[in-house]
Give the backbone structure.
Amino acid sequence: MRAYLITAAAVVVSIAGSMAVAEEERIAFPAGYASKFTNYLSSDRVQNPDQTIRLFANDIAMSGAKNGKSLPEGSVLVGEIYAAKKDAEGKVIVSSLGRRVSDKLVAVAVMEKRAGWGQSLPEELRNGDWDFAIFSPKGEKLDKDINACRSCHAPLTSTDHLFSIEHIAP
Ligand code: HEC
């Protein structure tokens, strides 16, 4: 009976542990990123036809990138996600440059890399030691499924799980 109770307690502890990972408690909002980080790319979003994105990287990422292959521990990347401007019929406006026009900032997506962060995750959700978080423009954590972030970036093993690494380290 005693052994059974100890096992049950161990199971509860390990479930609590994986929930903490799922809730991505470990990434704090990178306050002040807009002035402290480098805005390395601004673009229409590739997979979201009515959004644009502005990408920022901290100094560790900017100075430590290795030939477009990987970024060092301590790197923080921010994606400011904007709704694209629409006309009266709700169609996305395209500028004379053929690009969308940023309207409202809707969310702030963050990736941060710290030693050991990937260890507890299964292969299909592991992004090296990167992890993900998403915040409101004011810095409140949004209640989104972080595993969706992980599984879309996970297959990019040759670019350190990043879509835009060539723009950080040309
Ligand atoms: C279905 C695929 C997909 C999902 C899901 C996804 N991303 Fe991305 N992510 C992209 C693509 C594509 C880019 C390149 C820029 C763009 O078009 O938005 C990107 C770029 C980024 C970047 C800039 C670094 C890089 O990889 O270029 C960050 C930071 C980021 N995403 C965070 C997140 C977070 C946080 C989530 C979950 C809330 C998330 N992503 C979910 C596809 C995805």
